[in-house]
Amino acid sequence: MSEEHYLELCGNPVQFENASSVNNVFFDEANKQVFAVRSGGATGVVVKGPDDKSSVAFRMDDKGEVKCIKFSFGNKILAVQRTSKSVEFINFIPDLLHLEYSQECKTKNASILGFCWTNWNEIVFITDQGIEFYQVLPDKRSLKLQKSQSINVNWYMYCPVTSVILLSTTVLGNMLQPFFFRSGTMSKISKFEIELPVVSKPAKLSLSERDIAMATIYGQLYVMYLKHHSRAVNNPGAEVVLYHLPREGTCKKMHVLKLNTTGKFALNVVDNLVVVHHQSSQTSMIFDIKLRDTDSSTLSVHQPVVPARSIHPYKIPLTGPPAVTTATPVPCELYSSTWSVFQPDIIISASEGYLWYLQVKLQPVVNLMKDKGKLMDFLLQRRDCKMVIVSVCFQMLNGPDKSNLSVIATVFDKLNQVYKEYLEAEQSYTMAVETGQSRGNPAQKRPVRTQAVIDQSDMYTHVLSQFTEKVDVSHKFIIAVLMEYIRSLNQFQITVQHYLYELVIKTLVHHNLFYMLHQFLQYHVLSDSKPLACLLLSLESTYPPAHQLSLDMLKRLSTANDEIVEVLLSKHQVLGALRFIRGVGGHDNISARKFLDAAKQTREEMLFYTIFRFFEQRNQRIRGSPHFTPGEHCEEHVAYFKQVFGEQALMKPTAS
Amino acid sequence: MISPRMATGAQEKQYPASLLNFFVYNPKFGPKEGEEEKKILFYHPNEVEKNEKIRNVGLCEAIIQFTRTFCPTKPAKSLHTQKNRQFFCEPEENFWMVMVVRNPMIEKNKDGKPVVEYQEEEILDSVYSSVLQQCYSMYKLFNGTFARTMEAGGVDLLKQRLEKFFYRYLQTLHLQSCDLLDIFSGISFFPLDKMTYLKIQSFVNRMEESLNLVKYTAFLYNDQLIWSGLEQDDMRILYKYLTTSLFPRHSEPELAGRDSPMRLEMAGNLLHYGRFLTGPSNLKDPEAKFRFPKIFVNTENTYEELHLIVYKAMSAAVCFMINTSVELTREFCEQLDSLVGPQLTLLASDICEQYSINRRISGPEKEPQFKFIYFNHMNLAEKSTIHMRKTASVSLTSVHPELMKILGDINSDFSRVDDDEEIIVKAMTDYWIVGKKSDQRELYVILNQKNANLIEVNEEVKKLCATQFNNIFFLD
Q1: Domain B370-468 classified CATH 3.40.720?
Q2: How many residue contacts between A and B have a Cβ separation below 8 Å?
Q3: β strands within B346-420, DSSP E
Q4: How far is the C-alpha of A71 from the C-alpha of A28, rounded, in Å?
Q5: What is the mean pLDDT of residues A646-653?
Q6: What pLDDT, in 10s, does the model give residues A216-249?
Q7: Does this chain's domain B5-178 share its CATH topology with B194-361?
Q8: Which of A7, A44, A48, B62 is the most core-located residue (most Cβ within 10 A)?
Q9: Domain B194-361 CATH class label
Q10: Residue ranges of the CCZ1/INTU/HSP4 first Longin domain (chain B) (predicted)?
Q11: A14, A47 contact by CB (below 8 A)
Q12: What residues of chain A lie within 8 A of the CB of B229, using their CB?
C-alpha cells in the first residue's frame, strides 16, 4: 500500500525534562524556547531552543512559583512572572548586573494575565483591565511606561511573527481587539466580532481562547476560530472560520474550513496549510485556502484537501549510551491528551519532554489526490515542492496510470504560469536595476525564486529527456507531449530553449517522421536558430529536404550570411554563392581564394573564368588594379588561369 | 462533352482538348492470338466495338514494344498524331494505362463548308502525363493497387473495380482546363501563426488520444492544408480528392448555413456546427448508415486500408483515418460528434479570428501588378494568384490559355536540368513571363507592363521575391 500519512513529527525533536511535581515546563512561542524550571529555579532552569545557540541553563532564586517565564529576543533579558501584580527581570547582557528588578502593573487592582516581549527591550503587560507597553532599561534596571490602554480583558493572544496582540473583550468575549507593535509604538487595529453559533442567556463568556489561534498564511495574518457544532441547528459538523486581519482596514471573514465532524480539535499551520487535528478519531486534515472550491468572491468554503489521516506513527528514539539502547524504540502515543499545540507548527508533549515541529510530506498527498490539476495547484504552493512536482510530471507521462493529454496540458499550463510570473518579476527587477542605477535609486528587492518555479531546463533534465528515451511509450504520445509543452510555453510567451527543439527533432528523426518535422518547420513551430539550422544540415543525408529547410532558416536569421555561403560552396553552387553575397552587399569582404578553390573543384572552366573575372573586377574597383595581392594567396589560381586561358586573357589594368 | 467556344471570327468554332479513349490493359493476360480481349481490363467508352478496342490496345502495345528497343527502361510516354495525342503509363508492372486526348481544333468555314484544323501543338505532354498519373493515384487511393486486387479476387474483381471507379471519375476530368498546376499537383497550405498552429496540434493529438482508434489525422481550413499525419504522397492525392471533389460537393449547404446554421447541436450547452462530410449525414436518423469511404495508404510498404471520416465545422475540416479492421458504430460516431464538434467549432472561430488579425497587420492586399504561381517540390506547397478558387467542375484561371501554355513550356525546360535557372519570356500580348528555379522551388510570374524592358522586369521580380518570399532562401 502506498504511503498515506501526509503529516509527520520531525525526526529531531527538542528534548527537555518532562513536567513533574518538581519541574515546571513553560513554552515561549516567540523564541520557541522550552523552559524547564526545577524547584522554582533554585535547582536550575534549562532553556532549550530550536538550535543550540538559543539553549541556556542557569539558576535563579526560588521566590515562589513561576507563572510565566520568557526571554526577550536574543536572550538579552529574562522576564519572570510569579504573582499577578508584578513581573521580575534579570539582565543576561554581559557586564550588566545580574540582579533581579521588578515592575508592578500600573493599573490599580488589576491583575496581570501575562506579558509578551515585542522587542529585545520592549514588553507588554496584559492585565484584566488593559494593556501596558514598557521599555526596559537594563542598565538602569528599571522600566519606562510607553503607552497604556484601559480595556476589560477576558484573555489575550500574541502572534510574535506579526507582533499583534489580540484581546478578548466584552462579556461574551467575542469582541476581539487587536494591537500592533513596532519599535516603540503601539497601534490599535479596528476591533471585530466573532460570530458565535449560539448566544447564551444570560450572557457569559462564550468565546474561549482555546478556540482561537493566530497565524500567518500566505503572508497574511489570520485569526482562526474553531466554531463548534451547534446542536440547535442541523449542522453537519464543526468548522474553522478564518478572519483576515490586515494591518490597515477592517477584519473580514474570508474562509470557512468544513471539518464535517465534531469533537475536540487543535490547529496548526504548516507550509501555509491549516492542519486540524481531531482527537477522538486520531486523525488530522489539511486545508489550503488557495485551493478554491467555490468561486464566490467574498467567502470561500473549503473541504479538506485530502481525506483525514493520522500523523505518521512515531517512535521515540531512546537516548543514552549505545550499550544501553538495545531495546527497540518505544512507539509514541499520538494525539495524546497531554499534547499541547502551539502556532504555527509546534506540538509539545510536556509529560514526555518532547517538542516536535509538525511537517507535511508531499508524496502521500500525491498518492491520495487523483485530480492532477488540483494536485499541481496544491504542490505549487508548497515549500519543498520541486522534486515532487517533477516526479509527478514524470509519472503522469509513464506507466499504467499515465494521464491523458488534456490533463498533461493543464499541468504544463499551471507550471508555466508560475514560471512566467517569475520571469516577469525577474525582468522588471532587471529593468528597475538598470534604470535605477542611472538615476541612483535604491535597488528594489530581487524576486525570490521558489521551488515552484519549474523551468525548461528542469523539465528537460528531470522529465522530458528521460521520458523520450522510454521504449515502451508510443512515439506518437512522446511527440504529443513535447508539442504540448512547447504549446504551453508559447501560450505564456516564454522563449523556448533550443534543446527542447532538438529533443523534438531527435525524436522525430529517430522514428523517421521527417514529414512531420517538415511541417513543424514550415509553420515555424521550431524557432529559427543557428544551432537548429546546423542540426538540420546534418540531417540532409537521411532527409534531403532538410537542406532547403536549413538554408531558409539561415536566411531568416539574417546574421548567417557566411554560413549560407559555406553551404552553397560545399554544394559547388559557386555562382549561386557569389550572387547571394553580392545580393546582400557582402562581396567586397569575401575571400577570393575560397571561391576560386570551389570553382576550380567543379572542373568547369567557364565557371572558373567567370569567378576569376569577377574578382579581377573587384580588385580593379577597390584597388585600381586587377591583380591579386600576395595576402590573398591566389598565385596558384592565377597560374591555373594563365595555363587554361592564356596570359593575354588576364584583365589589363585600366589607366585611371 | 465537347462544348464549342465562339472565337473572334463569327464563323470560327473552337473545340478544346477532350478525352477520346481511356483504357487499362495487361499484355500478360492474353498473350495468345485470339485471346487479345482478355488483356483489356477497362475501356472507355465502353460502346466501342470489340475489335476496335483490341486494335487500339494492340497498337499501344506495339508502340511501347517498339520504343523499348531504343531505351529499354524508358519506353514512349506519349504519341503525337495530327488528331490526337496518346499518353502511356505503366503504374504497376505490366499494367498499362492509356489516355487518348483529342487535340483542340478550330472549325472554320471555308467556302460554306466546315473545315477542321487540329492544333497539334497546343497541349503539353507534361500536363497530361501528370493527369494520367493522377488517375492512377486516385484509383489507388480508393481501391488499392492492381496487384493486391488480383490477389484478392482475380481479374474479375479488378475489372469490376476499374469499371466502378473510372465510370464516374472520367466524367470529372476536365481536360480542357488542365495546366501547370496539374503537373505540380501541389498542396495549398493555410498561412497561420505559430500559436494557433500549436493549438491545432494540441487538438489533433487530443482527439487521436480520445478516439483511440484514429491512426492518422489531417486538418484543413478553407480548403487549405494545415496538418497531415499521412505521408506526403498519400496526402497529396487525398488533398486533391478533398479539394476538387468532396468539399465542392458540400460547399452549398455551408454557404447557406452561414446565417442560419443547418444543424445546431446541443452538447453540454455548447452549440456546435460540426457535421460529417463522409458517412452519416444525420446522426439522429435511425436509418443512418455508418459507412465511410475506404482509402489505401502506404501502399509501398505497410499497405493500410482505412476508413476516411471527414468532419467539418465552419471552415475547418478534419479527416480521421481509422483502420478498416475496426467496425465503426453509431456509438463511435456519436462520441466523435460530441467530442470533436464543440472543440472544432471553437478552434475554427479561433483560426478565423487570428487569420483576420494577421491580415489586418499585413495591411489590405492591393491588387498586384503581377500574377504568380509558386511551387516547392520539397513540401509540395503551391500558391497561385492565377487560379480562382477551384470548383467541382473547372479550375478557373484568370489569364489567357496562351500564357498558361508558356508557363508549361518553361516548366518543361526546368525539368530537363538540375541547375538553378531563370527564363524570361516576352509574350505576344505585351506580357512578360518570368520563370525562376532555385533549388527545389519554382516561381512563375506574369507581368502586365506594356513598355517595360528586361531590366525593369528583372527588378519587378526581385521586388516580388523580397515581399512575398522574404522568409525563404530564394536565389536571385
Answers
A1: no
A2: 84
A3: 370-376, 381-384
A4: 8
A5: 82
A6: 999 889 999 998 876 655 667 888 999 998 888 8
A7: yes
A8: A7
A9: alpha beta
A10: 20-144
A11: no
A12: 516
